[in-house]
Amino acid sequence: MTDHKKTKDTNLFTRRAALGMAAGAAAIPALAATTQQASARPLEDVLSSSTLRAGINPTLVPFGTFNDRNEIDGFDADIAKELARLMNVELEIVQVGSPDRIPFLQADRIDIVLGAITRTVSRALVIDYTIPLHTQTVAVLTKDETSVPINSLADLNNPEVRLVQVRGTIGVPWIEANAPEAQLTLLDNYPDTFRAMQQGRADAMVDVIESVVIPMQEVEGVGWRILDETISNTWVGVGVQKGNHTLRDFMNIALFELHQNGFVDATWEKWFGVPMQTPVPLNPIF
């Protein structure tokens, strides 16, 4: 990310904070019940290989983004680099999309996954989580001109409302449970969902605001609004393959240290321009 763009993004997020928006993005896995799970690399194998493979989603700015050298950068990349440094190994960043995050982990293509992977019960059935890395807030992103007025969560449950969502994201099950009457279009990535909103093919989406508020501002010609009524606060950890307890246990110790020494908070403010809305409480018991 260039300095100019980083400054611009920071200003946008600060503006968002001034408007009192809550935040958060994330995604639910397509639980990949049929995905065949390859054996994870335990801690000793990661150390002996001298490489930590981290899956990061570069479309969730500023969690992940491409810098002017076309390298994946952002909050998640900085956290992954520090984790690798603490392990005294090299970091290999693997690009993942929201639907890919858990399948890549299950297929042993990565050792850990970041990318705003919200802690949910359904995901905990198929992967293990570390302690929380950060928090997020789920809310409704809409715009001034919609097919019907949208001013509250209850307004979404209307057959005339057209919702758009990235496959595998946390908004999908919420919509299925709370707005089953609405029309729902599922797309593969965030740029396509923003384009659908821009072109008038969709009225709203449900997502973690930290992940969408900056990229949405890059889409011109849309009077974006975020409902004041929020859905939930979520906890976001680092994902490891199910049963890889040696690697998860190390990550817990390392993340506790990064919270304790202020690295996580400083990195958050570096990329978001404001403090984390709901700080992660420091707890040495995992």
Describe the structure.
With 286 residues, the protein is α/β, with parallel strands linked by helices. The protein has 10 helices and 11 strands. The chain has helices spanning 3-18, 43-49, 75-87, 101-106, 121-124, 171-178, 190-198, 209-217, 245-260, 263-272, and strands at 51-56, 65-66, 72-73, 90-95, 112-113, 127-143, 162-166, 183-187, 204-208, 224-226, 232-241. Strands 1, 4, 5, 6, 9, 10 and 11 form a 7-stranded mixed β-sheet that branches. Strands 2-3 form a two-stranded antiparallel ribbon. Helix 1 packs across helix 8 (209-217). The longest helix has 16 residues, at 3-18. It starts with a helix and ends in a 14-residue tail after the last helix.
Question: How would you summarize what this structure contains?
Answer:
It contains ten helices and eleven strands.
